[in-house]
Amino acid sequence: xxxxxxxxxxxxxxxxxxxxxGNAHAAEPKFSETTAIGTHNAYEKAKYTYFAQAxxxxxxxxxxxxxxxxxxxxxxxxxxxxxxxxxxxEAAKTPGELYGKSRNQDLGSCLDNIAAWNQLHPDxxxxxxxxxxxxxxxxxxxxxxxxxxTLVARKLGNSVYKPADLLGGTHxxxxxxxxxxxxxxxxxxxxxxxxxxxxxxxxxxxxxxxxWTDEEYGDHxxxxxxxxxxGEARAFPAVLGAGNGDPRTSRYDASIRPxxxxxxxxxxxxxxxxxxxxxxxxxxxxLIATGAxxxxxxISSTNPTDAEVAARLSLLAGKHASLITSDWAAKPAxxxxxxxxxx
Length: 343
Fold this sequence. Notes:
With 343 residues, this protein is α/β, with parallel strands linked by helices. It is built from 13 helices and twelve strands. It has helices spanning 24-27, 51-56, 107-120, 145-156, 163-167, 174-179, 201-204, 213-226, 248-251, 267-272, 278-282, 306-318, 333-336, and strands at residues 6-9, 15-16, 34-39, 61-69, 74-77, 127-133, 193-199, 236-240, 262-266, 286-290, 323-326, 338-341. The protein has an eight-stranded parallel barrel with strand order 3-4-6-7-8-9-10-11. Helix 3 packs parallel to helix 4 (145-156). The protein is globular. The two termini are 31 Å apart. Residues 1-25 have low confidence and may be disordered. It comes from Streptomyces lucensis JCM 4490. This is Lipoprotein. It holds the Pfam family PI-PLC-C1. GO terms for molecular function: phosphoric diester hydrolase activity. Keywords: Lipoprotein, Signal.
């Protein structure tokens, strides 16, 4: 089943976005000007039998949990097993091999599945892969930011929208590019994937690790740019955790703050606490609101009605979210593929 996406503006629950003559902004919004839906932990077999089906789902964001296995120098994909793979990614490298090969593969195979699926759907709308680095990177073991970039580049090539693409050879940082709204239109991003990196739960609870994924990749971007090699980067680090105001100022050294334009936090924390989230859309940052079902009044985290999803998408678009996520894998592509105007 192929993914289907709609470009819509919700009025109440859902109303189609009219293409207004002479108004290119309304007819062709930029990536930063829309709100879409993502699936939490889309690699889990209970959600989709095969990862290709997650790609078929229409969702605009799919999450992968990754462990660095320093003993075998492998990138494992699993929720809780750092030494093994437990996922719906297949040993499939070509379109004809999808939907039937053995599962429980490593990150490289997940990327192979994505590349094979991309051959079948070269005109798909942009899809964000939210990668939670459960234990962080281990650069000393050869599993650092540069090796991550190399793996993604080797597997997916030019189908990845990179930090250098946002800079466009014009801007001196991702922050400067975002503030200038240098994001391309959604239509021009067809066939593209974006990678968002967040620190993992194991990493955050490790008292011996204070150098998390976000800071490490932020340093990586800063250093690549200084060396004239920013084109090698394949991901956007995200500021993790809902906060009021600009959370970068208290969390990062001034030298890397301008390399964060993705923000990722709990939807209920943003909304129920009355945080002013206009900061994100005013600066054209990408705001990912997780646990969308938990915003008051809570709805089902697995299978709400279509109308409830539409209303929640409308509410969080009005709160300036770019992407909202939940465990709504059971919903059809006509729902998960909804894309509306950001508030």
